[in-house]
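Structure first, sequence second, as always.
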């Protein structure tokens, strides 16, 4: 059967604070991975220099800050652009408006136009995939979730049949070879690995992973990886990034299979992690 997904409210964590008087920003995403921010009333005067500041959660160095100039736009607001060519390391980035070197003010989300991210299929010619998704935190502030993967294995449709998880996906940034295989790695015991054969057609791949051996090892998560060139090549984490949903762990839920094991009764099934990586969860009933 084809695994189904159900929607639930998303959640977030961070150093957010409610600020009903904060300036707002409308965001438009483009298919290349760039973002445009249109900010209303950041404070200051028309002659004051203004910037949009992105600060990565738990920032520790200058690399955890990105400053983008805010310039007047045609509708009287201030606009900042984050092109796809500007690297934004993986993580969650809080958005602020800063005027003339003053104290940064947390931005609140306006309208997010993310239509270009739906069913996005980048060329992969740059050797990496860059994803930036603006979203509202649970405190009502604006943040950006960023991924930068090189190479990247995008998980697509998941099928569950006869105790096996069948994964369909596409590889970006490198090529699949005849030696390709997939593997499930027990997170708490990295030396414990189960492999699955990969069928490839160009950049598209499919593999079937039997969940029984994972369940028989007892409760705990298993991370899924693709080895496109076999043991001699890169190890690519499977993830689902190319859409407009920043947090899939609480949004997508899939059917589980109950099994009796030497560790007792368990449930086993796929899920997406906090970073939207694909994994298999085994938990006691």
């Amino acid at each position: 059967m084809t695994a189904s997904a159900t929607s639930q409210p998303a959640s977030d964590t961070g150093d957010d604070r409610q600020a009903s008087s904060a300036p707002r920003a409308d965001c438009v995403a483009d298919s290349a991975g760039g973002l445009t921010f249109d900010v209303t009333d950041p404070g200051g005067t028309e002659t004051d220099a203004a910037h949009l500041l992105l600060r990565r959660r738990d920032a520790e160095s200058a690399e955890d800050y990105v400053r983008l100039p805010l310039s007047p736009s045609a509708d009287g607001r201030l606009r900042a652009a984050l092109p796809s060519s500007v690297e934004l390391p993986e993580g969650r980035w809080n958005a602020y408006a800063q005027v003339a070197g003053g104290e940064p003010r947390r931005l609140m989300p306006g309208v997010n136009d993310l239509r270009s991210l739906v069913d996005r299929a980048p060329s992969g010619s740059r050797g990496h995939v860059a994803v930036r998704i603006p979203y509202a935190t649970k405190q009502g502030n604006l943040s950006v979730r960023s991924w930068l993967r090189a190479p990247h294995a995008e998980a697509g449709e998941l099928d569950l049949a006869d105790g096996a998880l069948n994964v369909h996906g596409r590889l970006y940034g490198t090529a699949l070879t005849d030696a390709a295989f997939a593997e499930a790695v027990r997170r708490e015991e990295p030396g414990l690995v189960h492999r699955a054969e990969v069928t490839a057609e160009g950049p598209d791949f499919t593999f079937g992973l039997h969940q029984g051996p994972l369940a028989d090892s007892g409760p705990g998560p298993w991370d899924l990886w693709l080895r496109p060139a076999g043991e001699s090549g890169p190890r690519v984490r499977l993830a689902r990034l190319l859409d407009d949903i920043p947090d899939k762990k609480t949004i997508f839920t899939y059917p589980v299979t109950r099994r009796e094991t030497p560790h007792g009764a368990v449930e086993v099934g796929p899920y997406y992690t906090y970073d939207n990586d694909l994994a298999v969860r085994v938990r006691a009933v």
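Margin note: The chain is about 0% helix and 50% strand.
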